[in-house]
Amino acid sequence: MKISSSQMFRNFNKWCLAVMTILFLTGSYTAQAQDGGTLFKANCATCHHPFNDGTGPKLSGVRDAWLENADEATLILWVRNWQDAAAQSSYAQQRSTLKGSAMTAFGDKWTDEQILSIFDWIDAQVQDDGSGGGGDAGGAEGGATEEEESSLGWIWIALFAVFATIILAVGGVRRQLKHAQVEVEGDEEGATASYADELKKWAWLNRKYVGLGALVVVIALLVTLFQGLYSINIMEGYQPSQPIDFPHQTHAGINGIDCKYCHNTVTESKSASIPSVNVCMNCHKQIKGNEPEQQAKIQKIYDAAGWDGQKYTGKTKPIVWNKVHNLPDHVYFNHQQHVVVGGLDCAQCHGDMTKQVEVAKVQTHEELNAVQANIDAGINFTKATLTMGWCIECHNQATIAPGILADDNPQTLTYYDEIHNRLVKHNKSLYSKFLDDDKVSPRELGGWECAKCHY
Length: 455
Description:
Oligomer: single chain
Largest sheet: none
Strand content: under 5%
């Protein structure tokens, strides 16, 4: 009996197709499941945690409560604009009176399915009894999300192992049958065929599928390569450890300390500056902390200042902070120009630090899009934070106040007042062109000119 290659492998292509279908469906399902987690971390984790109350209430069980007292449509409306929901639903009105900061109105930023995927992700989380409280989403990010990603990796490994086992098993069976055929027919040439020879023969017989598979693999590798190249020096989400876990939420949020009090060169210099220990001692000479953890952090300030609790000893130990926001050497950025002249709020670039429980980080562009000042200004970022695209998006979308008509005394004119006067007096046609879209942007005043930002 002669066993042909076509007989042995006639179902092999179907097996390959079935395995590849499982791989794609598994990846697609997991990606959809993780989409809610990605949205949660980028937009909700600043205020909410699945299991702990923070700036906002914990979200575990929230959907069930809404479905019991209202309905799913009202819950979705609450996420889009809580004021509209409160006007239509008594339960939403009741929730709006609870203590806490007003929830950000996300409007039409997401589809209904994306909003529900966030609650799907929240409902899928399992509370870690040993995690402790914290009021932020660190536990959710570091635990459940990593577990999901790890599970996806193991699924791929398991499916690859099954796929490889099938190939080896089929090859082994075929070789045994081949040897049996040789013994019957005396074909010594066929008995010497190696696995490599068998693989070459199979690849040639199925060259269309092999060629298509090779093309897919090459394209996937190229896409992965270029995605990796594009991510070089992308600082978005960068959050280095610090010698002191400084709680911005406590200082800027609960105590209401102005950013400019600590970062006191922001209105005078290109740099916002790292607060000196002397600034810290203005308050912490009296405030020593109530909890042991707080006292340990404040003791580092005393060590840096040389303060023994009663007097300055002169023995200091500097605090070595790790820089968070890093720009390339060839990029020029001036805080004074943006804060004083441009009138930007710190939160528009650095996020709402009044809610930042963890140490400072480079906020993602999705997180910055949720800042109310950016929403009010009509600024919506699509490029990663601290990239060139991120900067020019703001320069194109931001609106500059038209200024006032004043006399020619430089002491009475602001930067944009002076530009406004020059346009009105000397180039009205250009000014009219700028106002075609009812606003004047930094781009129209040279904000896209290369030398403004590059040495």
